[in-house]
Amino acid sequence: MDIEIPLILTLDIGTSSTRAMLYDSRARVVEGCLAQRPNQLHTTPDGGAEYEIGKLFEGIVGVIDEVVHSAGPLANQIGAVAVDTLVTNIMGLDATGQAVTPVFTYADTRNAPDAQRLREELGDQELAQIHNRTGCLVHSAYLPARFRWLARSRPEWLNVVAHWVSIGEYLCWQLFGQWRVSYSVASWTGLLNRHELAWDQTWLSHLSIDETKLSPLADVDQPLVGLQGKWANRWPALKDVPWFPAIGDGVAANLGSGCGDSSRVALTIGTSGAMRVVLSQNLAVVPEGLWLYHVDKRRSLLGGATTEGGNLFAWLRETLRLPSPEEIEKTLADMAPIAEDITILPFLAGERAPGWHDEAKASLIGLTLSTRPIDILRAGLESVAYRFALIYRLIAPHLPLESTHEIIASGGGLLSSPAWLQIMADVLGQPVFTLVEKEATSRGIALLALETLGVIEDIMTLAPATDKIYQPNSSHHAQYQNAIAKQVDFYKRLVDVDSE
């Protein structure tokens, strides 16, 4: 491969690992320039999910060291550093920049009762206004409930903390001595007024949070340049190149999947799942049940995430003691829809989009003496597809005509099962394209950096290749519409009633 410059060094700081990679100006991976360190998420029986920032930062420095060393003379051709991080995360630092708290993640549910109390205090009308102002619902994944929990459980931390920052902001502080957060990462907190692109004053007054303890906001085209002393000495090839503010990993995955505008919808299923589309406009009203984050000042990300995905597939396979994946796939491929017989509410870990019921439980309805384990598995896969169909219905009014947009599938949970891909196409009633690109997240931030530098005109210029296309079966699609209505009916009877 002829390497085209400038090169982009990418840092993908994810839930399970931190990865550094080198891309050329055609968004191609430079062979041999990849490093990865595991990230250890500490969980507690009461729902805690947190990191120790010292170990995270050590891993970030380590992967940069490895890639810069592996690049050799090519390191001098690096034109920018691009970063994405898991979102939402938050930690408290004192006035000297030392950690007071661990890094709390979106997966930490110890604040779920606080989210519920906030919903009760605010009422439906104000909740709708908050959703529309911030693009986020009141939920344990976002910071309003996190700050309420801190005030209730650890008020002493609130008195000591001088800066509330995310992992990406901490990186800026360590390397450049400056606080800065992108609109993208800020939009995932639930505290950004998306219309004004400013911290939401109404929320801050509710939470008694001083805006001076939050970082200044910046767009992705406002990089930092000039590493501080020891880092400039450690990485001389990087000391004078622009370091772009971190963006959310979900945005990066969309961009790297070739879903950089409304012509392509990203459907990703790993352990959990998400369906997202990049819009060139900031919607006047956020659709009920969805979130609306920022890519940058001019583009937004509309979609919904689910707690269920590959985790349900794996749980059913293990619990039901099913045969090998190869045998499962062969049997599923020969089966007709099970929709008319079994209905599943697949909420093993609560519900996110579109209903956002934290305490929702899974239900299995319609078993008979003739029901086989493989029938339950297929019903489970169909049930997850129904949840995405509901999200898709909310996204669809903001897309081009059906004939001019594509659904791009990615994620190991979905791509590992051709039968599930066919179910998804049948349920959605749309062709589903599988993605060839395996490094979508890192590639996404490389593309955004290349666009910002002016190396490429637009992210979609270098859309990745797709592989197999799964065409919908119209007869199955009709059956599945009835099954979705059936699932929604059971949802209203069981989940909505339990949450009242």
Estimate the helix proportion, in percent.
25-40%
Distance N terminus to C terminus?
A: 60 Å
Low-confidence stretches: none
- Count of alpha and pi helical runs: 16
The CATH top-level class label of the largest domain: Alpha Beta
Total count of domains? 2
CATH superfamily of the largest domain: ATPase, nucleotide binding domain
Fold-level CATH name of the largest domain: Nucleotidyltransferase, domain 5
| Number of separate strands | 23
Summarize model confidence as the mean pLDDT: 95
Structural classification: alpha+beta
Order of strands across the main sheet = 17-18-16-15-21-22-23
Textual characterization of the structure:
- By secondary structure, the chain is of the alpha+beta class.
- The protein is 38% helix and 20% strand.
- The protein has a seven-stranded mixed beta sheet, sandwiched between helices. Strands 3-2-1-6-14 form a five-stranded mixed beta sheet, sandwiched between helices.
Q: How does the SSE layout of this entry go?
A:
Blueprint: E1 7-13, E2 17-23, E3 29-38, E4 42-43, E5 49-51, H1 53-71, E6 78-85, E7 89-93, E8 103-105, H2 112-134, H3 143-153, H4 155-160, E9 163-165, H5 167-176, E10 181-182, H6 183-187, E11 192-193, E12 198-199, H7 201-207, E13 217-218, H8 229-234, E14 247-248, H9 249-256, E15 264-269, E16 273-279, E17 291-294, E18 300-306, H10 310-319, H11 325-333, E19 343-345, E20 363-365, H12 373-395, E21 406-410, H13 412-415, H14 418-428, E22 432-435, H15 440-453, E23 466-470, H16 474-499
Parallel strand pairs: 1-6, 6-14, 10-13, 15-21, 21-22
Antiparallel strand pairs: 1-2, 2-3, 4-5, 5-8, 7-8, 7-9, 11-12, 15-16, 16-18, 17-18, 19-20, 22-23
Helix pairs in contact: 2-3, 9-15, 10-12, 12-14, 12-16, 14-16
